[in-house]
Amino acid sequence: MITKKITFHISRYKKGLIDPPRFYTYSLAVSESMSVLDALEKIRFTREPTLMYRHSCHHSSCGTCACLINDFERLACTTNVWALGTETVTMAPLSGFPRSGDLVVNMNPFFKDIDEDWTYLRPSQNRERDRGPDTENRFLSRFEDCIECGSCVSACPVSNRNPEFMGPAALTALHREMDKMPSNRNRLLKRSKKDRGAGLCDRALKCSRVCPTAVYPAYHIAELQKMTPDE
Fold it and tell me: Does domain 3-105 have CATH number 3.10.20.30?
């Protein structure tokens, strides 16, 4: 099996132990098929058992392994090491979140403006393909594309400057909820217009560039900015 020697610079932090944060360096033989998450697993199993990172699904469904890889928000599980085209891979936690340890951040701020009663389901877009069984008038539902990875918040310059900003993920979820629940349109729109809302967005578009599932938060925020609440 052909391998390349890759150097990983990983930002480490353990409160009271590795404090302040600093980079540790690990050299690893990496095969052509290895993802960044595979490399992290190998480092943890063979070199550094205290290395902290999150993972679950290994196929870009859960969003938990998102971090900064060579200064860009990516999912570690679907980022191929060789495809990065560098002999050095630098890793750090997402920006804009409280740090728990190493590559792990506290995601609670991500959810503070996403109501628990907002549904994660929406009608399938391919209505001809996704007809439900038993009746031609019933169509299947599907989950929202957002996997709650936090990449958009990390990349957003406004979120990093102003922690009170609702942020691209919450505003996108709010806009989608308006489509699903037209009766709540005015209440939701007024919420998006508050001083923490869509008006703070400066159209950097970074949220859409880093989104691994093509949600395009910048589009949803722009639509909210164009709307006016009913009196």
Answer: yes
